[in-house]
# Entry
Amino acid sequence: MIVTAICLTFVVFFLTNLYPNLEKLAKTQGNFRMSDEAVESWLNKEGYLQPLPIKYGQWLGVLPGWTHETDAGVTGRCIAGTKPAEVAAEAPRFCGLLQGDWGMSTVFREPVSDIIATRLALTGKLMFWVMVLMVPMALLIGVLAGMREGSATDRTLSTFSILTTATPEYVSGVIFIAVFTSSTVGLKWFKGTATSAMEDANFDNFFLPVLTIALYGMGYIARMTRASMTEVMTAQYIRTARLKGVKFSNIVIKHALRNALIAPFTVILLQVPWLLNGVVIVETLFNYKGFGWTLVQAAGNNDIELLLAVSVVSVVVVLLTQLISDIGYVFLNPRIRIS
# Structure
């Protein structure tokens, strides 16, 4: 996990520190009419023209931060503003990711760590309610469809699952907004906005974004559950139980259900990183300023420090989720433990 995280963050660091991005950053922070010499001077003063491995080491916090002496004093990565030489000498030498210093956002003018904590909490709230709605409904649809393969119930629920997965969030989200919230042709069932849900979430202002995300992921989990349930229902021990006269409901609940949920368990956990990064469209569409909205703002405004922090959080969440799913799969499937 550590090696994978280092490799992925280095790739993101390399892409964000390409010279055209740095040139755009310099002109954004200075003046769009800056000459090439002025751009290089600004980048050199801010430490961006150092070799890439050195910059990456400083960002991680394993190499000392850069310093730059001017007539006004000393500036540096670990120095807030411009300080006299004797004051700058007392500043810490290392100030990177490992020291908890994520840098300053050039767009929001706030510490990146504060922005990430706030926006991640908002997206966490959205993800929680999406999982609460999506997982039980998807499992119920998948189990009901897989209990009797080929039946009318199976065909109906499978068609519904395919339709939800085939409909992108930006399509269903726009339809929901037009139908349920529009003041001209809509039903006006939901009067709140997702922006107000950031402070006070309720059914009126929070249900539509939750439903939009849940519907898209529900179909995939339901289809996986149906396929797993169908396979289990044709197993030899299920046939034996039916020949012995065991009630069909007992067969499903006591024998088939647990084994059928092994594969969907992994799929459900893998929805967490998808939700974290897949909410970009929905949060932008509903103007819910969470983690996905922050990613769009960081990328659109070339906010390098914030973009790097968002990437790190995404990488860590994906790796941790995969680790948890692997460990959980071992506990659910005794055959893996025995082997």
